[in-house]
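User: Before I run my own analysis I want an independent prediction to cross-check against. Here's the chain; please return only the structure tokens and, at the end, one sentence I can use as a sanity check.
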Amino acid sequence: MPLLYPILQELPGLPPSIGLPWPAEVVQAHHGLQAGFRASRAALNLDESDPIRLGHHLHQVKTAMVPVVEALGRQTLNPLPPVHIEKITEAIFALVDGLQLALVKSTAACISFIHKSTLQSNV
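Assistant: Structure tokens:
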């Protein structure tokens, strides 16, 4: 099962602000999103990512990153452009897709290993 969307190396940076500079909360939230994105993407690239690690990252992305992006999209003063919110959302959904696929594969590999170990010990 291939990924629906390619996973970016990094989240898009903040676009240049028009008029007022980005509020400190927006900058800090964006830095947090970038750090979380990097960490979760790195978990996908590990040779031996186990289901627990992948599940943790998937949970973090869904419960911590998605709400932050939604909050950034609802800013009333000096809001991020909708196009930028859309780019971040697409990148995070691609990451979720990749983590879900990796979790399924990793879980299947663990089950297969346990099954083979059980069969060999019964022989």
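Sanity check: Residues 13 and 30 are 8 Å apart (CA to CA).
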